[in-house]
Amino acid sequence: xxxxxxxxxxxxxxxxxxxxxxxxxxxxxxxxxxxxxxxxxxxxxxxxxxxxxxxxxxxxxxxxxxxxxxxxxxxxxxxxxxxxxxxxxx
Length: 90
What we know:
Helices cover about 35% and strands about 40% of the residues. By secondary structure, it is α+β, with helices and mostly antiparallel strands. β2 and β3 form a beta hairpin. About 20% of the residues are buried.
């Protein structure tokens, strides 16, 4: 499995999850796990997704998610699971 970690942070607004998940679905990216919280007006979401059958390369997913974040006023970061794991181990 080829997993990525996607994080979304910013002011809460209608449609954040819908925009991100629609893009992923349209490109055959499978969401494996999702967690979201809203603290006062701030939105925070973390997703684990499988890009093994994605119809576009990782680089395009990374770039387009960043653009979607700019369009809706949040910060979206996407990184490969192995990089995320190495960065966060003690």
